[in-house]
Amino acid sequence: MNTAIILTAILTLIAGVGVFLIGCNFMSANLESLGSRKMKTLFAKASGSKLVGVGVGAVTTAVIQSSSATTVMVIGFVNAGIMTLAQAATVIFGANIGTTITGQLVALGMFGNSAVSTSVIFATFAGIGAFMLAFAKKDRTRKLGGIFAGFGMIFVGLSLMSGSMKDFSEFDGVKEFLAIIKNPVLLVLIGTVLTAVLQSSSVMTSLAITMVVAGLITLNQGIYITMGANVGTCITALIACIAANRNSKRTALIHVIFNVSGVIVFMLIGLFMSFGGIDFGWLFEKMFPGATQMQLAMFHTIFNLITVIIILPLTNVLVKLVSKIIPEKKEPKTDGPQLYFVDDHMLATPPLAVQQTKNEIINMAETAVNNFNLSCKIVCSLNFSEIETFRRNEKELNFINKALFDYIVKLQRLRLNDKDRIYLSTALRSISDLERVGDYAENIIEYAENLKASNGSFSKYAVQEIEELQKLIQNLYEKVMKAYKFVDFTSLKDALAIEENVDMFTENMAHNHIKRLSEGICTPDVGAHYLSLASNAERVADHFINVANTIKRIA
Which is higher by pLDDT, 554 or 473? Predict the structure, then answer.
C-alpha cells in the first residue's frame, strides 16, 4: 500500500512539474506575442543608465517568466553587436529580480483554507482561457485567452505538486532522510543540479516552497536549495554561448559570476549568523510570522535585490574582469559574408527577432543599391579598380538571400502575432527582390566587361543619361527605405511617382539612342548594351517598389 502511495505521489509530482512548465511557457509566449511592440521599445531603452538596464531585464523576465530566456536573448544581442557588454550585464542583473515574480505568485496561490484556496481560484483561469481560445475569433482575444490559460495551468501544476508533497510528508522515512541533509554546501549543490536538469529556476523554487509548506524540509534548507537554483539557471546561458563570439562568452560568464557571487556572499552571512546560533530560516520566520507560504518567496526576492545592489556599482569592474579571463586573441580575419542583425539566440524572443530581421533586410537593401550604383559607375568609366568591392557585395547579397530565408523559415515556426506573421511572409518576397537587384547590377558589369573587351564605350550623351537614371533610382531607393522603415505611405506615394518617372526616362533613353544611331554618334553593338542597361535599371526600380509595397499588408 505504501509503495502504491509513494508511486502515485512521484507520478503526481512529475505531472505537476510538467503542467507548471507548460503553463509558464504558454503564458509567456502569449504575453510576449501580445506585447511585442512594447518589448521592442523596452529593449531600445536598455542603452540608457544602469538602473534602466536593470529595469528592462526585470520587466522583460517578469513578462516572459524566464531569466534563462532573457539571458540567452541578451547573448544573441551581444553576439550581433547590438548591445555592449556593460549594457548586457545590467539587463542580466534585472533578469534575476524579474524571475522572483514566479515564486511570489506561487506563494500567493497557497493562501486560503482547504475549501477555497487562492490556488483553486487562480486555477479557474485555465478554463476561462480555454473557452476564449475555443470560441474567440479576434487574434488579440485569443492571445488573452492563451495568457489566462497559461496562468491557470501554473496553479493547476502547483496544486498537483502541493498534493504530492503532502503525500510524501505522510511518510516518516522521507522526512527523516531529508532532515539528514543539512550541510549548506550540499543543499546548494542539490539546488544547482536539479535546476540544471529541469532548466528552470522557477520550477525549482516553486518545488522548494511546496516542500517547506508541506513540512518535508525546513525553511533554512529551502533557502539554500533556492540559492543553488540561482546557480543552476546559468547552465542554459553557458550552453547558448558555446558557438558564439568572445563577447557572448563574456556575457554568459558575467551571469555565472553574478549568481555565484550572490550565493557566496549569503553563505558567508549564514556562516557568520551561525556563530550566534541563528540562521536564515529563523530570521525570515521572524520577519514574516505566520506566513509560511511567503517566507521562502520573500527570501528569493530579497536575495536577488541585495545581490544586484552589491554588484551593480561594480559593473565596469566585472566587465574588465571577464575581459581578462576571456582575452582578445588575434584570429584570422573572416571577410566572408555574414548576417549582421539576426542570430539564432534571438529566436528565444520571436518579436525582437522579427524586428532584427527587418534591420537585416534594410542592410541588404543598402548593399544592393550600392552595387547598382557601383555597376553604373564602372560601365560609364570602364574603370574596374573597384570590381573586387562589387564582387564581395554580390557574394554577400547571395549569402543573405539564402541565410535570411532559412532564418525566417525558422522564425515562422514559432509563436507570433498575426502582424509579425504577415510581415515575415512579405519579408521572404523582399529579400528575393533585393537579390534580383544585385543580379541586374551584375548584368551591367557584364556589359562593361564586353565594352572593354571590344574597345567600345558609351558616348558622352549616353553616359549623362545613365548618370541621370542612376540619380533617379537612388532617389527612389531613399523614398522606398523611408516608407519601409516607418510604414510611411507618403513616402510610398513619392516612390511610386519617381518609379513612373524612371519608366518615362528609360523610354526617352531608347528614343534618344535611335536618334544617335541615325546621326552616327553610337554604334549598334554599343547601343545593344545601352538598351539592355536601361531595361535592367527599370527592373531594379520595380523590385525596389515591390519592397515598398509590402507596407500595404502590414499597416
Answer: 473
> How is residue 117 annotated by DSSP?
B
Q: Which residue has the cell 546560533?
A: 277
CA distance 203 to 111: 19
Residue by residue, what is the 3-state secondary structure of 125-145? HHHHHHHHHHHCCCHHHHHHH
Separation CA 301–CA 14 (nearest Å): 26
Residue found by looking up cell 537587384 in the block: 437
Task: Retrieve residue 10's grid coordinates.
Answer: 512521484
Residue 63 to residue 6: CA distance in whole angstroms: 36
Assigned C-alpha cell, 371:
552595387
Q: What is the mean pLDDT of residues 19-36?
A: 70
CA distances from 274 to 180, 226, 474 (A): 18, 19, 74
- Asked if 477 and 365 count as a contact pair (C-beta separation under 8 A), the reply is yes
pLDDT band at residue 68 under the 50/70/90 scheme: low
For residue 177 the three cell numbers come to 532522510
Q: Measured between alpha carbons, how far is 315 from 89 in angstroms, rounded to an integer?
A: 7
165: nearest Cα among 235, 127, 213: 213
Predicted TM-score (pTM) of the model is: 0.66
Residue count of the chain, please give it. 555
Distance CA 167, CA 21 (A): 21
Q: CA-to-CA distance for 552 and 463, rounded, in angstroms? A: 36
* Most confidently modeled range among 191-195, 242-246, 417-421, 443-447: 443-447
* Helix H or strand E segment including 510: helix 489-519
- SS3 percent helix, strand, coil of the chain, rounded to 5, is 85, 0, 15
Of residues 169, 170, 171, 182, the one with CA closest to residue 213: 169
Nearest 5 degrees, angle CA 462-CA 445-CA 504?
A: 40
Percent of the chain with pLDDT over 70: 86
Cβ atoms within 10 A of the Cβ of 456, count? 15
In whole angstroms, give the CA distance from residue 281 to residue 4. 34
237, 96 contact by CB (below 8 A) = no
